[in-house]
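[worker-b] picked up task from shared queue
[worker-b] task type: protein-ligand structure
[worker-b] ligand name resolved to copper (II) ion; SMILES cross-checked against name lookup, match
[worker-b] sequence length check passed
[worker-b] input payload:
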Amino acid sequence: MRTFFTRSGIGLALAAVVAAALSLIPATSSAHPSIDIAVANWKFTPDKITIPVGESTALRLTTTSGVHGIKSDELGIPMTTIPNGKVIEVTFTPKKAGTYVLHCQIFCGPGHADMALTIVVKP
Ligand SMILES: [Cu+2]
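[worker-b] inference finished, payload out:
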């Protein structure tokens, strides 16, 4: 009995170590830059980002209040809803340098009209 419990304990410890090691490996291993953006009523933080042209870029959007959305035909970002409490990743490759202003795509209250994310694409 004693041996059984000891082995079981080691097994659990090993399982915990393996689980901890696995959690260090990102779910998607990719070379492209990933930019974290916090989304809330009624602001993107940061509200302006600069990225290089022709390179795959991932935006990781996390909403902490309200439901918001982004979209850009020019940048190749499809209509993307960002529900409260979720992390949504959008990957796109900007083809042309310029300044793009992405207004929130979902009516979210009094600050909706002023809620925008500016993406500057550098040549
Ligand atoms: Cu919004």
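[worker-b] attaching auto-annotations
[worker-b] The chain has a mean pLDDT of 84.
[worker-b] releasing lock
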